[in-house]
Structures are given as C-alpha cells and as structure tokens.
Amino acid sequence: MDVARDVILRLVGPSLEAAALSGVALDWKTSLQEACAERGLGSPVYSVVGEGPDHARSFTATVLIAGEPRGTGTGSAKKHAEQDAAAEAYAAITSDA
User: How sure is the predictor about 7, in pLDDT bands with cuts at 50, 70 and 90?
Assistant: First the structure.
C-alpha cells in the first residue's frame, strides 16, 4: 500500500498542488477570500452597480481589498460580475510578491 501511495503521489502530486494554488475547483470569491486571509489583508468587500432595464440588466462589480480597488468585473447577473472581479483581484494579489 505504501509503494502504491508513493507512486500515485509522485505522478499526481505536483498537479494536485498546482490546482490547489490556482483556485481550481473553487469559485473565485472563495479563492480570493482564502488568499486574502493567508496574506492578512482582511475580507474582500464587493460593490455592485446595475444599469439598464430589468429584462436586460448589466452589472459591474468592484472588489476592494484593504480599502483598495483590486478587481472589476461585469456580467448579466451580480454573481457573474462578482466572480469576474474576484478573479482579477486574485490574479493581482497572488502576483504581488
């Protein structure tokens, strides 16, 4: 059993680690929340503005981290706009080193 575990971890381990670090299998808002916590930046705050008629609404979200805008996103639903903003902010804070 130990030999099989070692072989599997050797073959798949690097891919699993890369996936965990890139936010794969999680939504961007969750990944951003975790990245902010790891860096001591506090919780992200989302501001969403909608415009247009009810049948063709468009939303723009901005995510603030430590009071600073770090990502924006747009979408036909608030959730989509927030996810886009979170993805942009995640890329911004994980590239800061």
Answer: confident
